Amino acid sequence: MKLLTNKDLVGKSFWVQYQSLRGRNWNVEAKRYCTFGDDSQEKEKKDWPTIPTIWVEMARILRGWNYELERHGHSKRESENHYLVRKKNYVPQVVTAPWLIIGQLTVDQKEALGLKNATAGSYIVEMEQEYTGQVINGADIEEVSVIIGDARVEWLQTKKKRFLQEFIKASLDGIIAIIDSDRKDFMNDVPEDFLVLARFSVIGKNDRYSNVANVFRHVILNKDLPQVQGNIVHISVPDDYKPHIIGKNWDNIHAAEKKIGREIRLI
Description:
alpha+beta; 5 helices; 267 residues; three-stranded antiparallel β-sheet; seven-stranded mixed β-sheet
């Protein structure tokens, strides 16, 4: 074992293991292959890209394109977990390089370096033995990142197509539609071409666990209004919907008018 400085890292590649003491527990990260730039900061981290596990439809698309998804995370909040996306049956490159420990040192490590009475701090230590591990080619990572972007485009197009079908089914005039949904993420599926004028709770329904699930009614406006002449849009809605659309001090409807660039008149 020997101590290094930041200057010793410049322009070189190592297997790096970061470690730190949190309270009474040591946090030791898995070794990763890193290349350091001129400022001795990590220039390159080679690992597969990820997507949140809540992107179910996007995950389905990627699997259909023959990419592997490996789940990571055990949080009760699904939004905090993710899938690691990689090429199927990928064979990584095997690389042998010096092994560094960066961070705080254990008592034994300090004694081995003659730092028994040293104060707590961050150190860079090169271990005696080298480490051999698997490295992912940067070009392959970039390729998967591009594929994820393509999958997102297809996912958004599919969501828009599905929403359009639902809007047309619920609309009488192509301008306004009333859509009920108990899905918490329904608002995320509304494309930019549409505007939710109002959203309010209606009578709940029993879900599969025999609990009452909230159902929300959405008053949705098609912002693309080629059939509307002039700067006034006439919207026909039930009287009890109008307070939700207008809002307190007319704030909601004025905000909607600003977004579509036309005056809205409720009839």
